[in-house]
Target: Flavin reductase
Amino acid sequence: MKILEIVGTNAPKSYNRLLLAYMQKRYGSANKEISLLEIKDIPLFNEAYFSEDRPASVQNLYDQVNAADGVIISTPEYDHAITAALKSVMEWLSCEKDLMYQKPVMLVGTSLGVQGTSRAQDNLRQILNSPGLAAKVMAGNEFLLGLGKQKFDEQGQLTDQNTIDFLDECFNQFLELAQAN
Model:
């Protein structure tokens, strides 16, 4: 099984990147290849580039999403929404016909505040449900990690066992969704 993780920010330091790196290390195995995709080099969406002068970073995005059995997106929350960089990535993805159609997607996120990324995940879920994407977003198990700075140790490991157990439960539900697809 191939799983693609998308870092939902172009910021150089991100607890969401740390979360995905943790998940990659914890859940990757011989039968679960998990790769991490940075979006910092993907340009802002421009319809003029869609067909003829498609940037290599966008083609790489398409190729990785197409090859994946499932996608995990980790988003920070900026002003109750996803980042502009991640929104642009969603716009690129929505223009490639059927690329995300019914693709299993798990949303995760961490922030410095106490609410985690609840509003950003709602925003992203709404975008992923749009006709251009029509992804199969995992329902019911939302991983919202508040106070992210306090939840990781210096080695990038989650420190709270209840948080780890809940992440395990969410990831296992995602695997069931991806395997059923």
